[in-house]
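> call design_seq(struct)
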């Protein structure tokens, strides 16, 4: 289904130079991935084309800008401060790999032993404050607020037998992520739009109120006639609701506008952010220059919904992965 994106994001592709057939396929993917009713908009392909090209260029640049993968092996755990920070121990690192669903599925599909398996390691960064002891000169200060940093919910994304293939898959995933963001915005609008189902009920309520208040020539039961002030308040609320709901003639155009907006501004919806982290061997945040600390530059992928994940391209030792598989 996504084979066309493999071609778009192939090794030889450069930003702005894509075959016409693949651009058209990407446009259709954008529609299928959000709301197929967008095809009812006259000229939807022409209207979406600039936004789709902008999104493709962005994800190509985004993924190509990621640093080279680091080697993940038990023997280098203590010598690589990143691995030491991301995992509690070598055993914890091995357990994480053994239990990763994406990696397990990849190994099932590939019978032969591979020297390296490439993937994107994604983690959630957590910070917790606790009271601890701290040495100030020769004095031990107790109950000092300290922040400990940990990395949780590790998962391997798009494992593959080569770095280039993993990068290709990540570009496809980033493109689809933009579509997911657009789809969620459409879902919010549709939820509001569903209120339009109350449109006729509101109109009928308004009509009933008018009748009961003696408007027109219909016979009205005096006992049921409403107080004028109450009637005006009810009518005012109905009018407000109708104005808020609006008509549904342009909703499909609105949905396409959402897709166009997200894809036209991909850098505002999906981006990498570099973060500097200074911690000691216990994972406690320290100030710059403190003794016994390590300084790391982390890459976090962020989206416009406020979510972020710390990410790192990794090259897993085939021997390490296979040994874990046999357990």
């Amino acid at each position: 289904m996504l084979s066309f994106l493999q071609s778009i994001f192939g090794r030889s592709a450069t930003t702005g130079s894509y075959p016409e057939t693949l651009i058209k396929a990407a446009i259709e993917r954008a529609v299928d991935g959000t709301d197929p009713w967008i095809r009812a908009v006259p000229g939807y392909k022409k209207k979406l084309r600039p936004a789709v090209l902008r999104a493709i260029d962005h994800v190509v640049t985004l993924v190509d800008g990621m640093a080279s993968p680091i080697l993940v092996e038990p023997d280098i755990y203590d010598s690589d401060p990143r691995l030491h920070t991301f995992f509690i121990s070598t055993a914890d690192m091995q357990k994480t790999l053994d239990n990763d669903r994406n990696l397990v599925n990849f190994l099932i599909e590939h019978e032969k032993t591979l020297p390296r398996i490439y993937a994107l390691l994604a983690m959630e960064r957590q910070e917790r404050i606790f009271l601890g002891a701290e040495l100030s000169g020769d004095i031990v200060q107790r109950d000092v607020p300290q922040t400990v940093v940990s990395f949780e919910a590790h998962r391997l994304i798009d494992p593959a037998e080569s770095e280039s293939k993993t990068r290709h898959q990540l570009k496809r995933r980033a493109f689809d992520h933009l579509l997911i963001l657009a789809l969620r915005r459409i879902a919010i609008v549709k939820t509001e739009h569903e209120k339009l189902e109350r449109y006729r009920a509101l109109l009928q309520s308004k009509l009933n109120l008018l009748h009961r208040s003696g408007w027109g020539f219909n016979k009205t039961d005096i006992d049921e006639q409403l107080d004028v002030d109450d009637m005006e308040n009810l009518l005012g609320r109905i009018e407000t609701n109708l104005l808020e709901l609006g008509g549904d003639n342009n909703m499909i155009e609105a949905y396409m506008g959402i897709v166009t907006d997200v894809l036209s501004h991909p850098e505002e919806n999906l981006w990498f952010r570099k973060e500097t982290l200074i911690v000691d061997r216990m994972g406690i945040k320290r100030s710059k220059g403190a003794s016994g600390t390590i300084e790391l530059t982390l890459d976090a992928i962020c989206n416009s919904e406020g979510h972020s994940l710390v990410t790192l391209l990794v090259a897993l030792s085939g021997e390490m992965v296979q040994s874990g598989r046999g357990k």
